[in-house]
Automatic annotation (TrEMBL):
Gene3D superfamilies: MFS general substrate transporter like domains (1.20.1250.20). One of its GO terms (biological process) is monoatomic ion transport. It comes from the Eukaryota. The lineage of its organism: Eukaryota, Viridiplantae, Streptophyta, Embryophyta, Tracheophyta. Pfam families: MFS_5. Mediates high-affinity intracellular uptake of the rare oligo-element molybdenum. This is Molybdate-anion transporter.
Length: 183
């Protein structure tokens, strides 16, 4: 459940990043540089962040994802280019964590159980892991994305809360996800 809340936080804000920057008055060139900074940050810090997650606690890496992404969401309230650049760098780091920490934590926990069970149960455990990843793709990248998009439309268009509303909602989802992870 914590991972779904965290993924919802990511999907909720994604469609509104460009829109937010344009409402702050930035042109295509500046917005492009902000996006490049986010993707470059993910490329640059991805290996380091993933390595630290493997060496440190994977659960801690998932919590770090939530905290870092909440900070990225909070900085969206500033129309300052430099603050938004920091936000994009943080967002790039979180992308690396999202697509590595949660999965590696699940696999590591599953591997711990493999050493405890009998050989007959190992096949079931491996099947369980495969089924879990299949459901995560459908729920996390499918259903959660659709519901998050609809919720974003509700916030911005129907309730007229402004282009920063999805980022505030994402921060709330991430905080809930972090609480679930910590418990």
């Amino acid at each position: 459940m914590g991972v779904h809340m965290s993924i919802a936080g990511d999907w909720l804000q994604g469609p509104y990043v460009y829109y937010l920057y344009s409402t702050y008055g930035f042109g295509k060139g500046d917005i492009g540089q902000l996006f490049i900074a986010g993707f470059g940050s993910s490329m640059l810090f991805g290996t380091i962040v993933r390595s630290l997650a493997d060496k440190q606690c994977r659960r801690r890496a998932c919590v770090t994802y939530c905290i870092t992404y909440i900070l990225s969401c909070i900085t969206k309230h500033s129309p300052e280019y430099r603050v938004l650049m920091v936000s994009r760098v943080l967002g790039g780091i979180t992308t690396s964590l999202l697509f590595s920490a949660f999965e590696s934590w699940l696999v590591a926990e599953d591997n711990k159980t493999l050493y405890v069970v009998t050989p007959c149960q190992r096949d079931f455990e491996q099947q369980w892991l495969s089924l879990t990843f299949s459901k995560a793709i459908f729920l996390g990248n499918g259903l959660v994305a659709i519901l998050s998009g609809l919720f974003g439309i509700l916030l911005v268009d129907l309730l007229s809360l402004g282009p920063v509303a999805p980022f505030d909602a994402a921060a709330c989802f991430l905080a809930i996800g972090m609480a679930i992870i910590l418990s």
